[in-house]
Amino acid sequence: MRDLEDRVIALEGQIRTLKAAAAQPAPAQPTPAQPGPAEASVQNQAAPTAAPPAQTQEAALAATTAQEPTLGGAGGSAAKALNPDISVIGDFIGALGGNSQQNSVSLQPIPAFQMHESEVGFQSIIDPYARGDFFLSFGEEGVNLEEGYITFTALPGSFVAKVGKMRSAFGKVNTMHNHVLPWVERPLVTNNLVAGEDGIDDAGFSIERILPAPKGIFLEATGQLFRGDSGDVFHSSQRSDVSTVAHLRGYRDITESTNIDLGISYARGHNDLGTNFLTHLYGADATVRWKPLRRSIYHSFVGRAEFIRSDRQQLPTTQKAFGYYASGDYQLARRWFLGGRYDHSDRSRDSALTDKGGSIVLTYWPSEFSQLRGQYRFTRYANNIDANELFVQLIFSLGAHGAHPF
Amino acid sequence: MLNRTRVLLILLCLGVLFLPSLAEAKKLNVATATTDLAALAQEVGGDKISVESIARGYQDPHFVEAKPSFLLKLRQADLLIVVGLQLEIGWLPPLINQSGNARIQVGAPGYLDASQFAEILDIPTGTVTRAMGDVHPLGNPHYWLDPDNGRRIARGIAGKLGDLDPSNTAYYQQRFEDFDKRLSAAEQKWDAEMQPFHGRKVVTYHNSFPNFAKHFHINVIGYVEPRPGIPPTPSHTIELIGLMKRENCKVILVEPYFDLKTPQAIARDTGGTVVQYLPSVGGEKQVTNYFELFDYDIGLLIKAFQTTQ
């Protein structure tokens, strides 16, 4: 009797695998005629008393194709089975307040209401060796390829490589999409020294590897080579004006609920004055996280700081600008987060001009898929221009469940 | 002569030094998403594998952080066993991608989704939307809390271990058969212990109890969460209290990672009792394997049912 039940359940498992293959893109084998090792091994694992176990997904796909009548073109669930995971994230911002000197040029303005960015993500496994990720940001006026790259996950020597357009690994904030930031906008140092909202986001390739380290320490090195165009930081006047980014990350669990994450970064590229003018960026970042595992959904804390130095070659002299931010975000309850940030940054083109500021942020998460945020920001721009601003942000996510940022 | 003895001695010493590491190297490295899968893998893998879970038993398996330290485990793994049904969707995919380990990528021989072996409940029919909360479109992923599913998963893992390590296939098979026997004996005992309480009604915080309830004939009449993943609301709590009073339900089961405030308020209002049951091995220190998990939970339940009769 139990055998019979087990057989039925094994069959149900097979059907689920078929359905999952239809619902989620499976790693398509390029040569289905020659079963790969995965297929062979899974088919060998027939349990002694149960029916044959679930087949691999490409076999499942083949079965689906056989059962579903082809409706031509894109019809049939077999065609849909290869669709990537699609997600859309909406980001609406409202702003109040402004500069104390109304006649002065508005600095980093945020309009009263703005459908700031709608990020559409397409993500899928490409083949047994790689996956693909595309993030298109639809602003109110146009579309921008925020990121679009292939990641080779099965390279020898534990290397992971990416090719395409991507946010570079310079520090922490530069790697984050807008909707995972704990604030409505980016820190002053990002705006002044690291190309603003889009940051160092360029086409090229990246290679990373976990390095051998003493037990318990995670050490990872990343090297990236880009075309050399990133906002107002890097500008490529000729083909050889490529930019490079290097990042070294060290991470360690202090206890099971506390960990520390340190990084150093370097970026080099040509600036908008021409091929003979370089900009060097040096960065250091530190993050401390606390999340008690038994109450992980109720309380947590993230403290973070990034220090960035920019050496910009220009006439008459190189501008050496420095900036940093330090922030803390505490989760008060399951749905509530309270945070603060202090900003301080020189300007890259004139390091004698220094902007400072601070923010208080309160975020409410109705569910995992939406958040409502309020942020009060005070900024004292260079030449004593003060700005008091209040931002309200609503972020909402549709479609595939993305990974939580870490 | 002396020299030769010395050389032999040195070689022997070296041999002794290297032997344990060679034996170590032969072990299959198994990483699992949760402690229950680690416990089941340990049952069938014995001393031929070394197994480690990413999530802890007292942690909400939906919300594990994708810590880089887990990458250190994953990059060494020969086999990764996951719960599947999108339980780990928020944290495992980036870890797999960044591991730089081709063996455990989705679809590779070292990737095993344990849900394919188990009886899955609550598979939604019809349209699935997030208005239903954080619903799992492929079915309820908390399926391991049924001894029959434990047996099926263990059998699946034994088969996979045999594929990856063919020289020990018989060993894994024999370990599975031994586990099967012990589990059947324990199951008889558990079934007998729970028999007097068939049909008893309980409320659970999250819908993570359906397989246990089905196996032991417990009737789950409601949840403290208004929808999966949505924290309790006053209106839902009032409704739930009304339902519990009408149905004469007095037991509220809460996973160790949820706040007890609302469940305790409900218990006060209904004259019921809050039971912090364990969904996973390792939820408490003394619960170190799959058998102790059921011993612990059944002990708690019986006590709760007896005191609320």
Q: Can you offer a commentary on this structure?
A:
The complex is a heterodimer of chains A (406) and B (309). Chain A is built from 5 helices and 16 strands. By secondary structure, chain A is mostly beta strands. Chain A has a 16-stranded antiparallel barrel with strand order 1-2-3-4-5-6-7-8-9-10-11-12-13-14-15-16. In chain A, helix 1 (2-23) crosses helix 3 (57-67). Chain A starts with a helix and ends in a 7-residue tail after the last strand. Chain B has 2 domains: 23-187, Rossmann fold (3-Layer(aba) Sandwich); 189-307, Nitrogenase molybdenum iron protein domain (Rossmann fold), CATH 3.40.50.1980. Chain B contains 10 helices and 8 strands. In chain B, the strands form 2 sheets. A 4-stranded parallel β-sheet of chain B has the order 2-1-3-4, covered by helices on one side. In chain B, helix 2 (35-45) links the parallel strand 1 (28-32) and strand 2 (49-53). In chain B, helix 2 crosses helix 5, helix 5 (147-164) runs antiparallel to helix 6 and helix 8 (234-247) runs parallel beside helix 9 (261-270). The termini of chain B are far apart. At the A-B interface, helix 1, helix 2, strand 6 and strand 8 of A face helix 3, helix 4 and helix 5 of B.
